[in-house]
TrEMBL record:
<keyword id="KW-0067">ATP-binding</keyword>
<dbReference type="GO" id="GO:0016887">
    <property type="term" value="F:ATP hydrolysis activity"/>
</dbReference>
<protein>
    <submittedName>
        <fullName>ABC-2 type transport system ATP-binding protein</fullName>
    </submittedName>
</protein>
<keyword id="KW-0547">Nucleotide-binding</keyword>
<dbReference type="GO" id="GO:0005524">
    <property type="term" value="F:ATP binding"/>
</dbReference>
<dbReference type="InterPro" id="IPR003593">
    <property type="entry name" value="AAA+_ATPase"/>
</dbReference>
<feature type="domain" description="ABC transporter">
    <location>
        <begin position="8"/>
        <end position="234"/>
    </location>
</feature>
<dbReference type="InterPro" id="IPR027417">
    <property type="entry name" value="P-loop_NTPase"/>
</dbReference>
<dbReference type="InterPro" id="IPR003439">
    <property type="entry name" value="ABC_transporter-like_ATP-bd"/>
</dbReference>
<dbReference type="Pfam" id="PF00005">
    <property type="entry name" value="ABC_tran"/>
</dbReference>
């Protein structure tokens, strides 16, 4: 069987800021044509990873390869295959959408102006309106349009949904997925808006402080990670039980998060003498599962 090529391959990445550990021995791979979402709480290390990927930051140890080249030393040909969206930032915002398209097109060999204008034409803006006078969401769409027109093979999008309203986010996500899938693009992105990820990504990487909590196909995570809710009176102790990923308790209401089966959890509760009622498996949205896995705070 032919093995799918990895576009991004990070091996044993370790990073500290001074003495503060961000993570140790992090491994990430992103297969060609896949859309991977990196999710984590504030401060988990997402921007650090993006900065290592785009070569701004050298990891303390380990290596990060894109198309087989070290991100600290990418050749111009490989750089040209990568489009970065860093917080929707646009320079030259005194230009309007036509002027900026013309300006950028001069720098790129494979410029695809249709990809830009297909997106831009959906914005409710005046024909000659300057980018500086547009709303935050509109500016983010212009930044994205300029990246899509570059026709990169790999897109790296940092916190792309920052400040976008639900309508713009939906437009962006559906447009991006269709663009990436129809052209076989690889995408690495971060976002805090977890419910958006459900319709966009193929693979999920969930980071917590200093460690990876999950890495794999989104469908597998949604199939395997479960929440069992029940009511219980009095104190009980499930410490040391490997089945329990997280237990949240508020008065009698208990939420137990696990990769184990219902039978295994019922057997565990019984073996620990927990008197429980109203036991049920809860249907988890991706956001519920994320919070169940990472904890509420
Ligand atoms: N230049 C720096 N110097 C010192 N510590 C830093 C620096 N940059 C980031 N950190 C710390 O490293 C950790 C990871 O930060 P990072 O910005 O990568 O997190 P993040 O997951 O992107 O967070 P957020 O979701 O809030 O954007 C945080 O604890 C942060 O305080």
């Amino acid at each position: 069987m032919e093995e799918r090529k990895n576009v991004i391959e990070c091996r044993n990445l370790t990073h500290y800021y001074g003495k503060k550990l961000v993570y140790e021995n992090l491994n990430i791979s992103v297969g060609e044509g896949r859309i991977l979402g990196l999710l984590g709480k504030n401060g988990a290390g997402k921007s650090t990873t993006i900065n290592i990927l785009n070569g701004f930051l050298a990891p303390r140890s380990g290596r990060c390869l894109i198309y087989g080249e070290d991100t600290q030393n990418l050749s111009p040909a490989t750089k040209a295959r990568i489009g970065y969206l860093i917080e929707g930032h646009i320079q030259y915002s005194f230009m309007n959408v036509h002027q900026i398209e013309k300006f950028y097109s001069g720098f790129y060999e494979k410029w695809d102006r249709d990809a830009y204008f297909n997106l831009i034409n959906r914005l409710k803006i005046l024909p000659r309106q300057k980018i500086s006078t547009m709303s935050c969401g509109q500016r983010a769409q212009v930044a994205l349009g300029l990246i899509l027109a570059q026709d990169p093979d790999l897109l790296i999008l940092d916190d792309f949904s920052l400040g976008l309203d639900p309508g713009y986010r939906r437009l962006f996500i559906d447009y991006l997925r269709e663009y990436a899938k129809s052209r076989g693009k690889t995408v690495f992105l971060t976002s805090h808006i977890i419910q958006d990820m459900e319709r966009l990504i193929d693979d999920i990487l969930i980071m917590d402080y200093n460690r990876v909590l999950y890495q794999g196909p989104l469908a597998n995570f949604q199939r395997d990670f479960k929440g069992f809710f029940f009511e219980a009176e009095g104190a009980f102790d499930l410490s040391g039980a490997p089945e329990v990923v997280n237990l949240e308790r508020l008065n009698n209401h208990c939420e137990l998060y696990t990769y184990a089966s219902e039978e295994e959890i019922v057997a565990l509760l019984q073996s620990r003498g927990v008197g429980f009622v109203n036991f049920r498996r809860e249907n988890l949205t991706l956001e519920d599962a994320f919070i169940g896995l990472t904890g509420k705070y």
